[in-house]
């Protein structure tokens, strides 16, 4: 005979679910940052090179190469040795979604009075962890306060 679920069990289940969501967000955070950067490099330079990705991310060439290989396996980009890096449709979609979330969070932080420099730094982390429900609330608040989302 099993014991009834207690309130403590429910709290533990909710807490575990929240931690799992954070772990899941961490797994996609690096991918999102890389595809956004690659898209930006292509837009501004006409290409994204591994050396530039490593420099902008502040990591070694080897670290950037490992991430690029992982993203290639995940179908987000394609590259060849000594060639530029290109995003797949999935990679472009991920970059656009991450950019949209960043813009919404940034607009929200500015709307509540956070200075631009701090809002930019904070939105870079928050964008990866914010739920769609919270993001929608940020958008509603920003629209009501007269701010824009980009």
From TrEMBL:
Write down the SUPFAM superfamilies for this protein, in alphabetical order.
Winged helix' DNA-binding domain (SSF46785)
Subcellular localization, per the record? Answer: Cytoplasm
Limits of the HTH dtxR-type domain: 28-88
Q: Does the keyword Manganese apply?
A: yes
Does the keyword field hold Transcription? Answer: yes
Per UniProt, the keywords (alphabetical) are: Activator, Cytoplasm, DNA-binding, Manganese, Repressor, Transcription, Transcription regulation
Return the Pfam families for the record.
Answer: Fe_dep_repr_C (PF02742), Fe_dep_repress (PF01325)
Q: Which domain of life is it from?
A: Bacteria
Q: Which family does it belong to?
A: Belongs to the DtxR/MntR family.
The subunit field of the Swiss-Prot or TrEMBL record says: Homodimer.
Q: What does this protein do?
A: In the presence of manganese, represses expression of mntH and mntS. Up-regulates expression of mntP.
The entry's protein name is Transcriptional regulator MntR
Q: Which organism does this sequence originate in?
A: Azospirillum oleiclasticum
Organism taxonomic ancestry:
Bacteria, Pseudomonadati, Pseudomonadota, Alphaproteobacteria, Rhodospirillales
């Amino acid at each position: 005979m099993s014991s009834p679920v207690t309130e403590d069990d429910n709290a533990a289940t909710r807490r575990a679910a929240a931690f799992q969501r954070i772990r899941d967000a961490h797994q996609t955070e690096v991918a999102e940052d890389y595809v956004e950067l690659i898209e930006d490099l292509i837009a501004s330079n006409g290409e994204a090179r591994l050396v530039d990705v490593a420099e902008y991310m502040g990591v070694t060439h080897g670290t950037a190469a490992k991430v690029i290989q992982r993203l290639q396996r995940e179908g987000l980009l394609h590259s060849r040795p000594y060639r530029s890096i290109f995003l797949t449709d999935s990679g472009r979609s991920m970059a656009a979604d991450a950019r949209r979330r960043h813009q919404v969070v940034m607009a929200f932080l500015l709307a509540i009075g956070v200075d631009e420099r701090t809002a930019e730094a904070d939105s870079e982390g928050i964008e990866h962890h914010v739920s769609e429900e919270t993001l929608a609330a940020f958008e509603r608040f920003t629209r009501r306060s007269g701010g824009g989302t980009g």
